[in-house]
Amino acid sequence: MRLTRGITQGLVFLALLALVFIGGWKMGVQTEGGRLVFRSNFTYPLLSKEALQEKFVQLNDPAVYDFQKSEVKLDGFDEPAELDFSFDPAIQKASEDLLDRYKPDLGAMVVMDASTGQILAMAAENRAFEVEGNPAISMSYPSASVFKVITATATLEKTQIQPESMMAYAGRNHTLYKSQVLKEKVSGWVRRCTLKEAFAKSLNPVFGRLGVFKLGKESIQDCSNKFVFNEEIPSEFPVAPSRAANPTDKYELAEMASGFTQKNIITPLHGALIAAAVANDGVMMEPYFLNSVHLKSGRPIYRAKSKVLSEVMSPETAHELKTMMRETVMRGTSRKSFHGFFRGRFRELDVGAKTGHLTDRSLGGRADWFVGFAEAHGRKIAVSVMTMHKKYWKVKSAYLARKTIETAFGAKKVAHRTRADRAKKAALRESLAGF
Predict the structure, then answer these.
(1) Which of 57, 212, 287, 406 is the most exposed, fewest CB within 10 Å of its CB?
(2) d(CA 146, CA 99)
(3) In the 8-state DSSP scheme, what is residue 342?
(4) Which ranges constitute the DSSP H helices of 201-314?
């Protein structure tokens, strides 16, 4: 009997000891170097991206949306929160320096990791227009011929037309008269080119005719929805919506398909998402500006996660679209800005783009777009640049994009700085891992 009682007491003692040990570990009592230390092991629920955005909205602080603050006081927390931005220091500085050097009346630049959605840089300057908020995310502008990416995607996905297919059209390259797009039989000054050439040189009649005679309103709108037009873009910060036109007749459909309309509008951020989807084999990732947010005490309240936003197109279509976007840089509307680019250290770099320009009637300035990608050694980035000028053309968006790509893939000091920054952020995440 005594033996049984002793065994029972021993088991109870061991159970209590185990409970104390587990409870102490949960409470953070651990050993380190032969001594007891306290380190919290409780986990706290993290804010969602939407909840964090709502708290930023409640702040109503313009400096937050301009990314000029790294410490803020958020509603519901007793201590300040520190923002760990996702920006690459070298690319961010280069973007800011370019806008400061060339001084467009309005300029916005966004650089994004196409594979993850990480925003590597965002810079914006407004010197002449009545624009509220950050011009890169708070305002939408006429997308001009950038919308041809959507029309080209729909064409490749929904018709038998391929990049090398021959297209017939009449008249000038960049006009869009009813006589060019509303008659199914091309007559008069008939010209022919491949779809790839029409894309690279941004031929409005070709894309207008594709919209009217090959695609139709429903197909283009369906494709634009996959590119996340007409809906909110998830982000830690509010992003102005992008809109696709809702044509009421065939000519408005031709305007929509070619981008020759005020009714297709996008933000510079959305421009980066469009290019990123092509570079990332048809998959568009949610953008994120913050790696994490943590309180001054060290407790994390938000961590970014890579997440798919939309499966825009098949990998095969993305591959074909890449060939068309490369043509823009090699022999199309960006060839002058990239002259000599591939002869030196960037000869192995894969670059593609779509450009566009159109007067924004609401602001009274001419918008110039470059939306493209650059890829090498497994790294894919998307670059979106929009500049707007009132009277004098100061710099081409394609040139600013080229200089940004050179920074992203160029000097060794950039790579070193980027690695050091990643190491710093990794150390920070590791130090917070126990919370």
Answers:
(1) 57
(2) 21
(3) G
(4) 204-209, 217-226, 250-258, 268-279
Q: Domain 85-142+235-249+260-425, CATH 3.40.710.10 — does that match?
A: yes
Q: What CA–CA distances, in Å, run from 149 to 195, 201, 234, 421?
A: 12, 13, 22, 34
Is residue 22 pLDDT above 60, yes or no?
Answer: no
**Which among 139, 148, 114 has a CA at the least distance from the CA of 284?**
114
Nearest to 372 by CA among 122, 121, 139, 111: 111
4 Cβ contact list (under 8 Å, min separation 6): none
DSSP for 159-194, please give it. SS--TT-EEEEES-SS---HHHHS-SS--SSEEEEE
**155-159 — which CB contacts under 8 Å span 24+ positions?**
155/195, 155/210, 155/214, 155/215, 156/313, 156/317, 156/320, 156/321, 157/223, 157/313, 157/314, 157/317, 158/215, 158/219, 158/223, 159/214, 159/215
The candidate with the shortest Cα–Cα distance to 227, out of 279, 281, 284, 267, is 284
Angle, nearest 10°, between helix axes 148-158 and 217-226?
Answer: 110
Read off φ and ψ for residue 238, nearest 5 degrees. Answer: -60, 135
pTM tops 0.70, yes or no: yes
The domain limits of the chain are 2-38, 85-142+235-249+260-425
Q: For residue range 369-419, what is the model confidence (pLDDT) as tens digits?
A: 999 999 998 999 999 999 999 988 889 999 999 999 999 998 543 344 444
The first and second tokens of residue 13, run together, are 């003692």
In this predicted model, what pLDDT tens digit does every residue of 409-425 receive, in sequence order?
985 433 444 444 455 45
Q: Inform me whether the pLDDT recorded for 16 exceeds 90.
A: no
Tokens of 302: 């938000």
Angstrom distance (rounded) from CA 220 to CA 230? 13
Please answer whether residues 162 and 152 qualify as being in contact, where contact means their C-beta atoms are separated by less than 8 angstroms. no
Average pLDDT of the chain, as a whole number:
89
Over 50: is that where the pLDDT of 254 sits?
Answer: yes
Query: 195 and 154 in contact (C-beta within 8 Å)?
Result: no
